[in-house]
Design goal:
68 residues
Length: 68
């Protein structure tokens, strides 16, 4: 493989990685559940944790005694 072919292949791979880094790319493939506005992160996280805490099928998390 010549140096020019290597550079062309590298550019192609970098272009594919750049496209896959777009959140809309992941959302279109159903890899994520939702796209949220960064300003709404706290509200969405709080609501999600509250819902998870009310799930009766998940046992309460207890750490017990932690030793180091």
């Amino acid at each position: 493989m010549s140096e020019e072919e290597k550079q062309a292949r590298l550019a192609e791979i970098q272009a594919r990685y750049a496209a896959a880094m777009n959140p809309r790319y992941a959302a279109a493939r159903l890899w994520v559940d939702a796209l949220i506005d960064p300003a709404e992160t706290r509200e969405v996280l709080t609501r999600s944790l509250a819902c998870a805490a009310m799930n009766p099928q998940v046992a309460e998390f207890r750490t017990g005694v932690l030793q180091t």
